[in-house]
Each structure stands twice: as structure tokens, then as C-alpha cells.
Amino acid sequence: MDRGVERDLIERAIAGDRAAAGDLIRGHQRSVYAYILRMSGRPDLAEDVVQEAFVRVLNNLHRFDFRFRFSTWLFTIARRLYLNAMAKSRPAYDSDFVGAMGVDASRPDSSMYATERQSVQRDAIQKALMALTDEQREIIVLFHQQDWPIALISAHLDMPEGTVKSHLHRGRKRLRVLFKDNNKLSEQLAGVMP
Asked: I need a surface site. Which of 3, 115, 130, 140 has the fewest CB within 10 A?
């Protein structure tokens, strides 16, 4: 979302314009949900965290400092809520839902094979992400899924850029190992099964 449009929506929402508040939410809802879903692996938790994050944002919108990016403020609130929720409960992985995210089987050009392959790939990615440390997973999701630059991730996590780069490097390295092991297992199963 363009920062000028975003600022206009924020100012109108502060003034009580419900439509502007709705537009602001719709403009950021998918990215925040995707971020929390990848962090937790749990759609129920992601929905709760995102909903609570937007409630808090709307209740405190008058406190937003326009010198900063709105998305950074929103993601910081969502992250804190996620960390609080994780302190209360241990995450459970829901591969069916994560695997189904973004798959539109109703499209006439999608084949059963392509849909199944996408589902398997999404499951493998989510399982691999959940095997990383919390820091590695969050940095990889912010960098690769949300397209945040290192400097923004560093500021968001209150972590030196070098540390962010180290976590990113180690996380990628770990993912390569996990995917390589997953491919070896797949090849072994393919050799055993007719």
C-alpha cells in the first residue's frame, strides 16, 4: 500500500471513518495473517492473533507515529501477541490447512496432480520452518515471504543486522539440509512403492 494512501486512511480512521478503518485492515490483513501462520503453523492461533492485533491497532491508532512505517508497527503488535500466545500454549501443526492455503482447485486449468504437488510442497515447507529456531523462522518468513529488508527486520526484532544475517544464513542452511533429507526419503519411498 502506498504510504500516502495509507496515511490518508489512518487519518480518516482516527477521525472515526469506519470505511477507512476497514480499508486499512483489508490492506494488511493477508500479509499479517500469512506471517503469523508461518510462524505458528496454526490457523486458529493465527486468526486469533491477527484479530487481536487489529483490535489493538484500531484502539491505539491515535498513538501511531507517522515517521515510521505502519506495517512495522502492526507487525510488532502482532509479533508480541504471538509470543504471548506461545508462552501460554505449545503450537500444534495443522498440515491440512497450511497445505490448502492458496490452492484454488476450482480453476479450470488446475490439475489434480498440480494441486496435490502444491499441497505436498507447502506441507514440506511448513514442517521445515517449524524445525528451525524461532528467530531463524521469523527472519526467514519476514525476509522471503514478506520481502522485508535486513535493516527493517533488524529494527523490528531489535537485533543487530549482523545477527539477523547470521540467523538468515543458518536458517537457510538448515532448510537445505531438511529439504535434502526429505528428498532422499521421497526417493527411497518411490523405490519401494510400485
From this structure: 3
